[in-house]
């Protein structure tokens, strides 16, 4: 696939890194030759330096025969103009735009073909905000992801000494939870993936990925570690786009304090937040944290634009007694370095939001893509199409499906319909070796390496004879 990515910042670079490894023809456009040179050194990409909203620059990037345009510059206006130009002048088939302002979300008609011609829009800041909200709801988790409109959840927890299932083989899970269908999708031990089998023993410190119907997730988590008390007091460092969105979305249900150093921004936050307490100050100020009761804080969330400040303030908050800490960190090397130490959870905004983009790029009918373990693995939700003749998965038992090593089918979501074809409910199936995949099943596939994704996508594609 020939893809043009506008913007070589964190999101654009992360998208390029993921797509170039899948044999796509990638061209990156940015006004910074420095950014482009750095990406050329480590990725096999073509680059064009210039204004992404310029018809000449888009033509130079190959817009006249490209398959996909991904506009993820820092400017909403640039992204929108580029999509309009790509449609009008080059009839580029698919156009995706990053939009940070909520104004365009409130007026979706502006994105239609006769206006800005945006096929899909994404807001990474909102994706990250929603991600953090799920972690607040499940304080024991390292990662919480949803599939099939929230019917199924994939949750990652660190196995805790004393958990009922810790130290026992996985086959004992059915005795611990006799009425709950659950699947251990993968286990990471010392950073290395382990394909779970019935006699696999979970050890303290293992990162365990569990798939279950969302209504059963809390029971499953209780088998691996002690349940933490619910979050009540939350302190947010940084009142930028993500910090503001998060405070606004949780302030009615939690006791929220938000720290912001910039006076003008702090005043704006205070005027737009109804219940959250806005404090002007430095989140790395030990005295300020002490005065504001950091030792009674359930969650400290560092969301400033400076990742070094986030690491410092979250580490300081943990040392001073915060129960749990979360930091927004852009560099993958930093994430791997600090998570699990004084910082409980480190989030990379690019890796968190990239799944929304990848779902529109993947081949086949891919509904959702989630990046796992900071991009090392992926979980996909794919709709199975065709029949036994035209498909390599439909009409076949799980044991007949030729999945690549390292990929596992974790769950199926099947719509139950009445005689008139109306959907009555969604049924969650944890498949066994003899479970048959049916047409229109939502199949959740776990890949321990993102290098397996292309093989999985190809497996789910129907033949050209299927109509």
Written account of the structure:
This protein is α/β, with parallel strands linked by helices and 467 residues long. It folds into four domains: 2-122, 3-Layer(aba) Sandwich (Rossmann fold), CATH 3.40.50.720; 128-222, 2-Layer Sandwich (Alpha-Beta Plaits); 233-352, Rossmann fold (3-Layer(aba) Sandwich); 361-460, Alpha-Beta Plaits (2-Layer Sandwich). Helix content is 29%, strand content 27%. It has 15 helices and 22 strands. The chain has helices at 10-20, 33-42, 55-60, 76-90, 103-106, 124-137, 173-176, 217-222, 241-250, 263-272, 286-291, 307-319, 332-338, 349-358, 453-460; strands spanning 2-6, 25-30, 46-49, 68-71, 94-98, 120-122, 141-147, 152-158, 182-189, 192-194, 207-213, 233-237, 255-260, 277-280, 299-302, 324-328, 345-347, 366-372, 377-383, 407-417, 423-429, 442-447. The strands form four sheets. The chain has a six-stranded parallel sheet, with helices on both faces. The protein has a six-stranded parallel sheet with strand order 14-13-12-15-16-17, with helices on both faces. Strands 7-8-11-9-10 form a five-stranded antiparallel sheet. The chain starts with a strand and ends in a 7-residue tail after the last helix. The mean pLDDT is 88.
Give descriptors for this structure.
467 residues; alpha/beta; Rossmann fold; Alpha-Beta Plaits; 4 domains; six-stranded parallel sheet; 15 helices; 22 strands; 27% strand; globular
């Amino acid at each position: 696939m020939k893809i043009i990515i506008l913007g070589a910042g964190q999101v654009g670079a992360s998208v390029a890194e993921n797509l170039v490894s899948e044999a796509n023809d990638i061209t990156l456009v940015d006004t910074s030759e420095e950014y482009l040179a750095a990406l050329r050194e480590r990725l096999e990409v073509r680059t064009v330096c210039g204004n992404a909203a310029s018809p000449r620059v888009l033509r130079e990037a190959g817009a006249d025969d490209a398959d996909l345009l991904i506009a993820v510059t820092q400017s909403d206006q640039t992204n929108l103009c580029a999509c309009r130009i790509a449609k009008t002048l080059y009839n580029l088939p698919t156009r995706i735009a990053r939009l940070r302002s909520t104004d365009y979300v409130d007026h979706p008609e502006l994105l239609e073909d006769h206006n800005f011609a945006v096929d899909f829009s994404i807001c990474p800041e909102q994706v990250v905000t929603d991600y953090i909200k799920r972690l607040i709801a499940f304080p024991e988790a390292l990662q919480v992801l949803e599939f099939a409109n929230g019917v199924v959840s994939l949750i990652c927890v660190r196995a805790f000494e004393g958990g009922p299932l810790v130290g026992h083989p996985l086959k004992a899970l059915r005795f611990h939870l006799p009425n709950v269908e659950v699947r251990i999708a993968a286990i990471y031990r010392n950073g290395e993936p382990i394909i779970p089998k019935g006699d696999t023993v979970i050890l303290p410190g293992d990162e365990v990925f569990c798939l279950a119907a969302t209504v059963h997730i809390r029971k499953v988590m209780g088998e691996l570690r002690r349940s933490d008390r619910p979050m009540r007091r939350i302190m947010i460092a940084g009142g930028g786009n993500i910090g503001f969105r998060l405070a606004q979305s949780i302030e009615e249900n939690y006791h929220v304090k938000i720290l912001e150093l910039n006076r003008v921004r702090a005043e704006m936050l205070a005027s737009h937040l109804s219940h959250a307490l806005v404090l002007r100050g430095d989140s790395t100020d030990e005295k300020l944290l002490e005065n504001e009761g950091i030792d009674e804080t359930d969650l400290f969330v560092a969301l400033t634009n400076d990742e070094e400040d986030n690491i410092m303030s979250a580490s300081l908050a943990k040392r001073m007694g915060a129960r749990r800490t979360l930091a927004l960190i852009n560099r993958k090397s930093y994430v791997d370095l600090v998570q699990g130490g004084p910082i409980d959870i480190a989030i990379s905004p690019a890796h968190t939001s990239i799944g929304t983009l990848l779902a529109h790029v993947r081949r086949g009918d891919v509904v959702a893509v989630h990046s796992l373990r900071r991009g090392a693995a992926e979980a996909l939700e794919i709709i199975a199409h065709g029949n036994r003749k035209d498909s390599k998965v439909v009409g076949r038992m799980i044991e007949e499906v030729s999945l690549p090593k390292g990929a596992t089918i974790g769950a199926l979501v099947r719509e139950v319909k009445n005689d008139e074809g109306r959907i009555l409910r969604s049924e969650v199936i944890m498949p066994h070796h003899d479970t048959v995949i049916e047409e229109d099943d939502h199949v959740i596939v776990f890949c321990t390496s993102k290098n397996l994704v292309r093989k999985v996508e190809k497996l789910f594609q129907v033949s050209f004879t299927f109509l």
